[in-house]
Amino acid sequence: MDRVKICLVGAGRVGRVHGSNLRNSIHEANLVAVVDKNREVAEKLSKELNVSKCFDSHERALDWGEFDAVVITTPTFTHASIAVDAATSGKHIFCEKPIATSLPEADEMIRAAKKAHIKLQIGFMRRFDRGFLKAKKRIEEGIIGKPLLIKSTGRGPGLPPEWAWSTQKGAGMLAEVASHDFDALRWFAESEFKRIYVMAKNYKCPEIKERYPDFYDTAIVVAEFREGKIGTIDMGCPVEYGYDARMEVLGEKGVIFMGDIEDQQARFCTEKSGVVTLAFPSWRDRFKDAYIEEIRHFVDIIKKNIPPSVTGEDGKKALEAVIAANKSIQVSQPVDLPL
Ligand SMILES: NC(=O)c1ccc[n+]([C@@H]2O[C@H](COP(=O)([O-])OP(=O)(O)OC[C@H]3O[C@@H](n4cnc5c(N)ncnc54)[C@H](O)[C@@H]3O)[C@@H](O)[C@H]2O)c1
Is the omega angle on the peptide bond into residue 338 within 30 degrees of 0, that is, cis? Predict the structure, then answer.
């Protein structure tokens, strides 16, 4: 197969990251079209990336059809319909997390991909981060013995777009900010969630709560896995100090830490401050290389016709945990899984 021809659907925050990586870093891929329902946004990005085709709907792009795969970077509530249409047209799919807003939608996407024999990969970039991968390997080698307790911190500096404030459109802030933490917990536990309990608060955004009553900006999740391990997630968004994605796995014989808070490229010293190392300003900077590696993997699995390492089923399991977490917030009780 020649270079894999890709159509980017969604030219917003993360669409710009994947678009630029496809154009500048993945030589086995050819970004041939940009879609955004806001035509001006699509035109702007396609001009910036020197892409000749641009469309204002994925249907129009699929009618044209001269590509092998789509990268879906639209708001979460649109993922399922775009993915099902793409699968029906025989296009491989990379879909950003969270896979969808409901389990029936996720099932429909997985079913459509299977039926069409196309790849479906979900955008959990932590699984492609060098530090996280190294930790996973060391754990598998037995360096800390059997993992017992897994902790994950997921904090973002700025609020996501407004659609993500609504639980209907974005599946809640745990989906938008902490999907990665749920997936990473499950990845390190190598087990499925059995029970989830969450406390969530809105400390910083009372004006949002007036319009979105179930909005929360700070949460702590306690989870139990089927074969006994336990885990926690703490989520905060917005936080003032930067982007923060750290994990820790406590095992029978030791502990392993992952994820830097410090952006080592930016260290300064003044008389007043002493030596200061800045925090990562955003997810784009913290996972710069991992975003490239996950898209490289997507292109690779298409070329080699092998399954993705992060599947639609992984996306569904993380979403199921998020939905259980949102339910736990509503009822102030632990929620058992599977739902
Ligand atoms: N992996 C990550 O680290 C990461 C980071 C940010 C966002 N995300 C996820 O990526 C997705 C997009 O988030 P974002 O922050 O980039 O959103 P965004 O709102 O910044 O951008 C979405 C873009 O999609 C366009 N759009 C909306 N509906 C469309 C449709 N039906 N067809 C075509 N275009 C449409 C909008 O006009 C907008 O330009 C979400 O699911 C989000 O959770 C993942």
Answer: yes
Task: Write down the architecture of domain 4-126+290-309 according to CATH.
Answer: 3-Layer(aba) Sandwich (3.40)
The sign of the torsion formed by the CA atoms of 303, 17, 153, 218 equals: negative
Asked if residues 120 and 113 have their Cβ atoms less than 8 Å apart, the reply is: yes
Indicate the pTM of the whole model.
0.97
Q: Domain residues of the chain, as ranges?
A: 4-126+290-309, 127-286+317-336
Ligand 1: distance of its center to the CA of 77 in Å?
10
Which of 13, 34, 48 has most ligand 1 atoms within 8 Å of CB, for mutation? 13
Among 8, 18, 96, the mutation site with the greatest number of ligand 1 atoms within 8 A of its Cβ is: 96
DSSP state of 35: E
Residue 295 confidence class, pLDDT cut points 50, 70, 90: very high
User: How many residues appear in the chain?
Assistant: 339
Selection from 168, 226, 237, 219 nearest residue 195 by Cα: 226
Contact 97, 318 (CB under 8 A): yes
Ligand 1 near 77 CB (within 6 A): no
* Exposure on the CB side of residue 108, measured as CA atoms within 13 A: 15
CATH number of 127-286+317-336: 3.30.360.10
Give the pLDDT band (50/70/90) at residue 280: very high
Look at residue 1 and tell me whether its pLDDT is greater than 80: no
Instruction: Report CA(121)–ligand 1 centroid distance (Å).
Output: 16
DSSP H helical segments within the chain, as ranges?
Answer: 13-24, 39-48, 58-64, 79-88, 103-116, 130-140, 167-170, 173-189, 206-211, 283-286, 288-304, 312-331
As a whole-number percent, the residues of the chain with pLDDT over 70 amount to 100
